[in-house]
Design goal:
This protein is of the alpha/beta class and 374 residues long. It folds into 2 domains: 242 residues, Aspartate Aminotransferase, domain 2; 126 residues, Aspartate Aminotransferase, domain 1, CATH 3.90.1150. It is 40% helix and 14% strand. It is built from 12 helices and 12 strands. The strands form 3 sheets. A 7-stranded mixed beta sheet has the order 1-9-8-5-4-2-3, with helices on both faces. Strand 6 and strand 7 form a beta hairpin. The structure holds pyridoxal-5'-phosphate. The site of pyridoxal-5'-phosphate has 14 residues, from helix 3.
């Protein structure tokens, strides 16, 4: 699905130097490498504050911890996504309210958000799924109307650009009150271990989140609130500082691969190519097809036989996960998410796909489909 080895070979010299410099300086925690990366990421995204943290899940947790929420306060999030959001909401004693997604973009449905709002709703967590921003104009309008916070889960969408109705162009994670991203190795900007960051333009929220990420401490050994320990390691920061200047080129490679897939698969009766959010660029963390009248398992097996990996992101929506079972929700409640879970298929997507590989993948998908349609 990804080829991190080849990517490393292209930047090996700089990466190795960056890692070695951290080891030589022995500033493994909060060293100058972290500060440098933080500043470069602020410049890249236009965010006033970037707070590097241990991973994307921590970023979401710290963001929610900073909002003075009370037990039982409701947080709206899509049901078709990775588990992290529901997890931190549950851990903090808040009430996850899941809603359906749009069939075309697979992102959170604005209509469904409106219907889910109650007097206890405090936060909306849109997920910019697979690399393109959800409908942020509409989501920010709803938030203003109902006095809610918006925490963007931009773990899959770093570098995506959103053009608002007013013509302003902003980066994913810098549109809501708070944005979160992950530097998990396979993410679009990945490190060589775990990493994450929080984004905000709000000075007070930034101070609060910095303190929470550091044991709730501003002055050393004075703990003003309950915090956590969540840091980006200096070695990871050094790696990310080398990779950040390549991010736009990495995005372009992914978009090029996506365009190749689109061209071959665009008119096929058994595949629906990814639809584009009209106001967002798509940075293709994943290239996710919707299959029509296809035996998906048989197709995956046929591809695997040819050495082509494929993945199902995500096979079970949040409301049907065992750990999150809730009398409020039953199978059938979120028909779009459930239909997507049954028909999506993600193909290899990374920065190193060349024409030869893309031709091999696409030809084999077309061939395999001949024997896997229902
Ligand atoms: C990867 C991811 C996360 C969590 O990131 P980690 O760094 O693995 O904790 C959260 N949300 C989404 C949508 C993700 O893709």
């Amino acid at each position: 699905m990804v080829d991190l080895q080849t990517q490393y070979q292209h930047i090996k010299k700089e990466i190795d130097l960056g890692i070695q410099a951290v080891i030589d300086s022995a500033t493994f925690i909060k060293g100058p490498a972290v500060k440098s990366f933080q500043e470069h990421l602020e410049a890249y995204t236009g965010a006033k504050h970037v707070i590097p943290v241990g991973n994307g899940t921590d970023a979401l947790q710290i963001a929610l911890m900073a909002l003075n929420l009370q037990p039982g306060d409701e947080v709206i999030t899509p049901t078709f996504t990775f588990i992290a959001t529901a997890e931190v909401v549950a851990l903090l004693g808040l009430k996850p309210v899941v809603v359906d997604v749009d069939w075309d973009t697979m992102n959170i449905s604005v209509e469904a958000i409106r219907k889910a709002i109650t007097p206890r709703t405090k936060v909306i967590v849109p997920v910019h799924l697979f690399g393109q921003c959800a409908n942020m104009d509409a989501i920010m309008d709803i938030a203003r109307e109902h006095n809610l916070y918006v925490v963007e889960d931009a773990c899959q969408a770093i570098g995506a650009q959103y053009t608002s109705k007013d013509g302003n162009i902003r980066q994913a994670a810098t549109i809501g009150h708070i944005g979160c991203t992950s530097f998990f190795p396979s993410k679009n900007l990945g490190c060589y271990g775990d990493g994450g960051a929080i984004f905000t333009n709000d000075d007070a929220l930034a101070d609060k989140m910095r303190a929470i990420a550091n044991h709730g401490m501003v002055i050393r050994y004075h703990h003003d609130e309950v915090g956590v320990n969540s840091r980006l390691d200096s070695i990871q920061a050094a790696i990310l500082d080398v990779k950040l200047p390549h991010l736009n080129e990495y995005i372009a490679s992914r978009q090029r691969a996506a365009a190749y897939y689109d061209k071959v698969f665009g008119n096929h009766p058994n595949m629906i190519i990814p639809a584009r959010e009209p106001q967002s660029t798509h940075v293709f963390h994943q290239y996710t097809l919707r299959l029509v009248n296809v035996n998906r398992d048989a197709l995956r097996d046929a591809l695997a036989e040819k050495g082509i990996p494929s993945m199902i992101y995500y096979p079970i929506p949040l409301h049907l996960q065992k750990a999150y079972q809730d009398p409020r929700y039953q199978a059938g409640d979120f028909p779009v998410a459930e239909k997507l879970a049954a028909c999506v298929l993600s193909l290899p997507m990374h920065t190193e796909l060349d024409d030869e590989q893309l031709a091999y993948i696409t030809q084999n998908v077309l061939e395999a489909l001949n024997s896997c349609t229902l």
